[in-house]
Write a structure and sequence with these properties.
The chain has helices spanning about 125-130, 145-150, 175-180, 180-195, 210-225, 240-250, 270-280, 310-315, 360, 375-380, 385-395, 395-400, 415, 425-440, and strands spanning about 25, 30-35, 45, 55, 60, 70, 75-85, 90-100, 160-165, 200-205, 225-230, 265-270, 285-295, 300-305, 325-330, 335-340, 350-355. It is of the alpha/beta class and about 450 residues long. Bound molecules: iron/sulfur cluster (SF4) (2 copies).
Length: about 450
């Protein structure tokens, strides 16, 4: 029987209309714009200069501090500038701009498709290789993976949970890699298990991907019996870290806590593949699978896209903006971000571009709260979104903390459900940031 989390959640139409589109290599671009701020933590420090010739896989930016990640070139060519350029939301960050010339790779990257099964590196060497290759979490947060795989000495990991739920509507990049590179993912899982020193991992997949479940179960039962495939109910946000942990292990991550507090580390299937490529193929994280989808598109796509490709270049490759498209989202409709700059470039964690029509995006007019409690029913964190919204609007920060606004996972279930079209998440998100800042500024006990 499929497992799931205990409270809240919604069942939106999953619109996985791009699930049967096989992964295609995206054509080489003329100019790549590679951001130094692609991960959670401090931006990387450029180690190249204007005029340098760089090859694919060459280090462009060095990790700068404890929480940071290396950044490598996804293309070969000449560095034409290092300058501040806006990201998709319009925030400025330093980019290395490269005029592409051919496709020359550095020596030492194994580009052969042959699967490498034997894991030769020990735990410390694995962590060093993952850090060197700039691997970050591809489930959304882009947290440096080597840090997540290095629990503090007073915490012990018991299980690795691998997230293959892909519960956001429309997204299919994780599904495609599970269908096209299943064994590489499982080897990536084994590598992370070795790094963590755990003997058991669980791979959770939503039941709307029966072929991926079947494929992974067959492989695990024949050759990877230490990895258990778990079928999960189709229910959003099933792939949320806390929801996944609860569904599979029945453990509850405490408020403001981390999965490691309950002996768990969660990684995404895309990260597992990137770990495989780093450790077994010596390949830095320079590309990823990006779903380009929408009901207004005649052909749904899943591209293998090099980091630093601009959104307008992607639009050009699919034949231009479909005439009905009015909005572009990076990511899924529930947690994705609206693209306000079409000339912004993709980053390591870019997973989808969703084209929405006027009909898809229409929000009804906001009216008064009718106290129906639907938002409370669907909140997977057990919060009272109507109350948090009221307190946020009134700026009652202390009461917001008492009512646990900091536990909000920004899933959007409340706003999706509210019959009065109240933009609950918009107000909650702002006050959540304020409350977390206050909590973190307090001296630790
Ligand atoms: S966005 Fe926050 S408040 Fe709204 S349902 Fe999700 S967790 Fe609850
Ligand atoms: S769902 Fe909307 S209308 Fe209903 S209680 Fe919540 S905020 Fe009020």
């Amino acid at each position: 029987m499929s497992k799931t989390f205990s409270i809240g959640g919604i069942h939106p139409n999953d619109h996985k209309i791009s699930q049967n589109a096989a992964i295609e290599d995206f054509p080489l671009v003329d100019i790549a714009y590679i951001s130094m701020a692609q991960h959670l933590g401090a931006p990387s420090t450029p180690v190249v200069a204007k005029g340098d010739y760089v090859k694919v896989g060459q280090l462009l930016g060095k990790a700068n501090g404890f929480i940071s990640a290396n950044i490598h070139s996804s293309v070969s060519g000449q560095v034409t500038s290092i300058e501040k350029i806006a990201d998709l939301a319009g925030n400025l960050s330093e980019h290395v701009v490269i005029k592409v010339d051919g496709d020359e790779w550095i020596d030492g990257i194994d580009r052969d498709k042959q699967i490498v099964r034997d894991i030769k590196l020990d735990s410390k060497q694995i962590l060093d290789k993952i850090a060197e290759c700039g691997v970050v979490g591809l489930g959304g947060a882009a947290f440096p993976t080597h840090i997540k795989l290095s629990p503090p000495p007073n915490k012990k990991a018991e299980y690795l949970l691998v997230n293959g739920a892909e519960c956001e509507p429309y997204l299919t990049s994780d599904y495609r890699i599970m269908m096209e590179s299943p064994e590489e993912i499982l080897i990536g899982v084994r590598i992370m298990m070795k790094a963590l020193g755990v003997t058991k991992a669980y791979l959770g997949i939503e039941e709307n991907k029966p072929l991926a479940i079947k494929k992974m179960k067959e492989l695990c039962s024949s050759s990877y019996s230490d990895i258990i495939v778990v079928s999960l109910k189709k229910r959003y946000p099933q792939g949320g870290e806390k929801q996944l942990i609860q569904a599979i292990t029945k453990r509850e991550v405490p408020s403001m806590g981390l999965p490691i507090d309950v002996g768990v580390v969660v990684q995404n299937v895309g990260t597992a593949l990137a770990v495989y490529e780093a450790v077994q193929k010596n390949k830095p994280l320079i590309d990823g699978i990006v779903t380009v989808t929408g009901k207004c598109m005649t052909q749904q796509r899943n591209f293998k896209l090099r980091v630093g490709t601009t959104y307008d270049r992607i639009m050009f490759a699919i034949g231009g903006f479909p005439k009905d498209a009015v909005k572009l989202i990076s990511g899924g409709p529930m947690m994705g971000k609206a693209v306000s700059r079409i000339d912004a470039a993709s980053v390591k964690s870019t997973s989808a571009l969703l084209l929405l029509t006027d009909d898809d995006t229409r929000r009804g007019e906001e009216s008064n709260c009718i106290r129906c409690a639907k938002c409370v029913e669907v909140c997977p964190m057990g919060l009272e979104p109507y109350l948090l919204n009221r307190l946020s609007r009134a700026g009652r920060i202390e009461d917001l903390e008492t009512n646990m606004v900091h536990d909000c996972i920004e899933c959007g279930c409340c706003i999706y459900t509210c019959p009065s079209n109240i933009p609950l998440l918009d107000t909650i998100r702002l006050s959540k940031a304020q409350v977390i800042k206050i909590i973190r500024s307090r001296p630790k006990k």
